[in-house]
Amino acid sequence: MNTILSRSLGAVLLTLLLSFPAHGFSLTDAQVKNFINSFAEMQEMLDESYDEADDPWDVEEDKDFSPSTMISDFMTEIRGHERYGNVERLIRQHGFSGVDEWSGVGDRVMRAAFALEMGEHAPEMDEEIAEFIRNLEDNPHIDEAQKQEIIKEMQAATASMEELAAAPEEDKDAVRPHMETLRQTWGYTDDDY
Q: Which of 137, 141, 168 has its CA nearest to residue 150?
């Protein structure tokens, strides 16, 4: 009797787990709006408080943030800085329970936004990368070791793009109506495309 009950309960739990997207619950419109608004305010706050001589937000330029976790990675990098408390307060003012929730939502928003942007330009990008590699391989002025290093970097960039393109459809659907606002937040114009 206990075995049948355990199996039934297990089947119900499995069904419930499979009904949710890979990251848990679907992004809501409010979460996306709150992230975008808080992100814009945070950029403004960081720009206003920027001091080149004493830069608490200085993140190594060559820091290799994963495209799927760039917001979380950045927040981990700046944790402990003097103005981090201001960031936490701002995040809570926008309806998030804390940095972890905000970062998780932010990672998903950014990943979905980049996937949408790349989706529009993916065929062109693939052809440009393939042409670049063909030209590189035919270039007699670059030695083989350098060619292999450049190709390795291109393959890593391609893998990152593929990682971003794999954003869940539910997240892309939630972010799609906010793409123009995100582009403005990032400072993009039509000329950038």
A: 137
- Phi-psi map region of 116: left, alpha, beta (phi>0 left; psi -120 to 50 alpha): alpha
Give how far Cα 92 sits from Cα of 15, 34, 183, Å: 33, 10, 24
Return all residues near 42 (Cβ < 8 A) that are at least 6 apart: 87, 90
What is the rounded distance in angstroms from the CA atom of residue 98 to the CA atom of residue 95? 9
Q: Identify the residue with better confidence: 154 or 96.
A: 96
| pLDDT mean over 66-81 | 84
- pLDDT, mean over the chain: 78
Q: Give CA angle at 161 (37, 23), nearest 5°.
A: 55
pTM, entire model: 0.70
For tokens 């403005």, the residue is: 184
Q: Please, which residues have CB within 8 angstroms of residue 138's CB and are 6 or more apart in sequence? A: none
8 Å CB contact between 38 and 94: yes
Please tell me the distance from the alpha carbon of residue 70 to that of residue 77, in angstroms, as a whole number: 10
The domain locations on the chain are 26-192
Chain centre distance of CA 146: 30
Residue carrying structure tokens 């981990």: 76
> Could you give the maximum distance between any two Cα atoms of the chain, in Å?
76
d(CA 106, CA 71): 6
Q: Whole-angstrom distance between the N-terminal and C-terminal Cα of the chain?
A: 63
The pair of three-digit structure tokens given for residue 49, joined into one six-digit string: 């408080």
